[in-house]
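User: These chains co-purify. Model them together.
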Amino acid sequence: MGLMIEDKQFVIPGQRLAEGMDYLPANGTYREEDNIYSAQLGIVNVVGRLVKVISLSGRYIPKTGDTVIGKITNIGFNGWMVDINYAYESALSLKEATSDFIERGADLTKYFDFGEIIVANVINVTKSKAIDLSMKGPGLRKLKGGKLIEVTSSKVPRIIGKQGSMITLIKNATNCKIIIGQNGWVWILGDDLNDEMLAAAAILKIEQEAHTSGLTDKISAFLKENSK
Amino acid sequence: MTQYSKRFDGRKADELRPMEAMVGVIKRADGSAMFKIGKTVAFAAVYGPRALHPTYMRNPEKGILRCNYNMMAFAGSGDRVKPGPNRRSKEISLVTKKALASVLDLSEFPNTVIDVFIEFPQTDAGTRCAGITAAVMALADAGLIIKDMVSALSVGLVGDSVVVDLCKEEEDFEGGAVDIPVAITNKDSKITLLQLDGLIKKEQLFRALDLGKEAAKKIHEVQKKALLEKFTQNGI
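Assistant: Joint model of the two components:
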């Protein structure tokens, strides 16, 4: 009876997590007869009676409230289609894009043109996987210049750090503006190309070593070593 | 039937060839894995879920799975393997897909496709089994919902003895051999792939499957170790 594993343990699909009816299956798990099994590769999280598995790999899956970086792929009569590194395209409607009055038939490329990069908020994800974006909110805007890199979306929290500690460290050391989308796209703008390259290298280093401890110190040393 | 008492490489009847596995070997892919058994090496890369084109192939209820089995030109026993799909590789791609589809839950991703590419730089025997074993690790690495892990191996009859994991010499044994690739789930030992052409007695088939189920557990241990190693490598 009870849990077969420890909290925060890594598990693989099909592994038995709990026995008996004391626990309830949540995300990434399923019940079969009396047992709860893992359905994903990841780390176990036990909250009260709920047992869930948090995936640490794979593609980005949007959730309402996520801030993402996207690329304009198409312009329609009613708004824009945006690629946010997901299997489904997301839509940015006119209403959510700007508070300006836009006349019928106006040229929408004035606001966002093909291939332009924006930072937006996910406001709705429907059952049929239609994703709505919004540009209304602090810091949501078009991104001009700079450089865009891609990291695994599950490593994003590590790159940001506790209360933004890690990203602040990189920003201060390299003097770059950095915006991280939950979808794993990272936008970097610095005064100098070398600064941008250093910031990108630091972020990719975090991605690679995300599961190791003492990462802040390592990155701090890495930045110091390479900033000359 | 011809007697076959000692195996070519000196293994016991229920002994597998030496195995090795690694996860995350292809950085650009959403999930990837390598599985090596004896001289057979399989690489699997998973891409997706991603938008499916042409759109008429889309399934609005769940995502579809596409598998591609390919032997590299230099992978055979010396003769150049002609590149591109052929009757054999198409069939193997299909059975691989069916072996994996029964454990994979794609209902979360309607209208999309998951692409699985399985490549063989080096082959000996049991390629489709090594491919399935690698592919299921790659799918797990891609963060997809998988009800259970699958381990695949070949069982069969060489001469008059029932053995697991036939090597190339045994497949080509002049006294006659029957090669049966099977894929077995770990949790409740269910069979998701079974192919058989040749003549084998009912008791021998059941004995072969029983041995296979035991051996599949050993493959599962290798898979499990490789999947967990991905999170602990580079030293904690």
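The mean pLDDT of chain B is 93.
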